From TrEMBL:
Keyword Signal: yes
Root EC class: hydrolase
Catalytic activity, EC: 3.2.1.8
Residues covered by region (Disordered): 455-477
Active site: 272
Name of the protein this chain belongs to: Beta-xylanase
Length: 477
């Protein structure tokens, strides 16, 4: 999933994988970072031998890149759409469906013999504005059930499991004040699960959330919900733990937490794994990250009802992390240049594979640098009652072409983005990230690109006061 969250984690694990500790050296400029390279056996082969799924989040627009496609084809046995099956992508206008991206993901899974994981049917984010504007509870309920019926129904029999409801709880265990919670009350989650079961009786139905990897107020609230659903016969089959983690912060009680859910009679899944660090990466950070990846896979292997682990992307090049957490990144197991990182070999070892020492290339900077010479952002809002739209123009003032752009900025008055156009616009807390579409990623010198979004506010709607393009501060004008 793209965006959008903070994951403080609880507990720390700093013990390094033995082999990694022995081989990881301090990085200096230009040095080669020793790492472990796996044998010819792929992660998919190793996971299948353990009876587990290993998945990745797919952006179908990247399949034209040979390195991306080769890893996707060979290393995974499960695929989930990063964004293509979300509500804004599949039903941008009421009753008007766009299946292009979702069908690409589904057809890729089928043609490659991979399981297809559905993400997500009901979520407060990446939600079209028309849904949020349904003030009648009856209309919103009908829209929700119709959406579930259409999307889950289209892929009936093809999806192994669905994230039926995503991110429904706050960190303190209370219900998130989404449009669904506000207008439909606590019962909307049950209604969504019953609608999903009717639409696809064979798919397993999951509730999915972040910051639930350890035992805390949020995970306990979900535990109580599952306990209640099981007692009353409400269809629920699995719980997803997103596991957007920070190096050194894999919860010490993660296995205990997953096991208590499994003991309720549901499957558990690690659904969106990445482990970020302060950048730039160095040998010590990469070794610590590898140890954490190894630990997460060991947790899943130790819990019989853990269906598997899905990493949220393939390469650091396209990770959502740097755009949401400035100064952090390098969160996946392949680097910007599709080179395996120590984490890859730690996962290999955790799954029972054999690794042998070999050098890997030096960590390099991202392939999409900030524009040389600067950038300028124009922000034009149109505000009414508790809603607003904004048109944003990003100008390249530099002398080099920008190939691929991510613009970040912050809201200070609780504004919430509900939908966007000409960019993928996501939000985590007050931080907003806008990323180019496949067709407007180039900004030539003295050129510009524009996008827009719709949002809500609670009475005040001040404009952002700072912007960064690919991490580089922009002027406002």
């Amino acid at each position: 999933m793209i965006d959008r969250r903070t994951h403080p984690g609880r507990g720390r694990r700093r013990t390094l994988v033995g082999l990694l500790t022995a081989t990881a050296l301090a990085m200096i400029a230009g040095a080669v970072v020793p790492a472990l390279a796996s044998s010819a056996t792929t992660l998919k082969d190793l996971a299948e031998a353990k009876g587990k799924e290993i998945g990745f989040a797919l952006d179908p627009n990247r399949l034209s890149e040979s390195a991306y496609r080769n890893i996707a084809d060979t290393e995974f046995n499960l695929v989930v759409a990063e964004n293509a099956m979300k509500w804004d992508a599949t039903e941008p206008a009421r009753g008007s469906f766009n299946w292009n991206g979702a069908d690409q993901v589904a057809n890729y899974a089928t043609s490659g013999g991979k399981k297809l994981y559905g993400h997500t049917l009901v979520w407060h984010s990446q939600l079209p504005g028309w849904v949020s504007n349904l003030s009648s509870p009856a209309e919103l309920r009908t829209a929700m059930v119709d959406h579930i019926s259409a999307v889950a129904g289209r892929y009936r029999g093809r999806v192994t499991a669905w994230d039926v409801v995503n991110e429904a709880f706050n960190d303190d265990g209370s219900r998130r004040s989404s449009v669904f919670q506000q207008r439909l009350g606590n019962g909307y989650i049950e209604e969504a699960f019953r609608a999903a079961r009717a639409a696809d009786p064979t798919a397993k139905l999951c509730i999915n959330d972040y910051s639930t990897d350890g035992i805390n107020n949020k995970s306990t609230a979900i535990y109580s919900l599952v306990q209640d659903f099981k007692a009353r016969g409400v269809p629920i089959d699995c719980v997803g733990f997103q596991a957007h983690l920070i190096v050194g912060q894999v919860p010490a009680n993660m296995q205990q937490n997953l096991q208590r859910f499994a003991d309720l009679g549901v499957d558990v899944r690690i659904t969106e794994l990445d482990i970020r660090m302060q950048t730039p990466a160095d040998a010590t950070k990469l070794a610590n990250q590898a140890a954490d990846y190894r630990r997460v896979f060991q947790v899943c292997l130790a819990v019989a009802r853990c269906a598997g682990v899905t990493v949220w992307g393939i390469t650091d090049r396209y990770s959502w992390v740097p755009g949401t957490f400035p100064g952090q990144g390098a969160a996946l197991i392949w680097d910007d240049n599709y080179q395996r990182k120590p984490a890859y070999d730690a996962v290999t070892e955790a799954l029972g594979g054999i690794v042998t020492p070999t050098p890997t290339p030096t960590v390099t900077s991202p392939t999409t640098p900030p524009p040389v010479g600067g950038c300028r952002v124009s922000y034009t809002p149109n505000t009414w009652n508790t809603g607003f739209t904004a048109n944003v123009t990003v100008a390249n003032l530099g002398t080099t072409t920008v190939n691929g752009w991510i613009l970040t900025f912050g809201f200070t008055a609780g504004q919430q983005v509900t939908s966007g156009w000409n960019a993928t616009v996501t939000q985590s807390g007050g931080q907003v990230t806008a990323q180019n579409m496949s067709w407007n990623g180039t900004i030539p010198p003295n050129g510009s690109q524009s996008f827009g979004f719709q949002g809500t506010h609670s009475g005040t709607n001040p404009s952002p006061t700072s912007y960064a393009l690919n991490g580089n501060p922009c002027t406002i004008g």
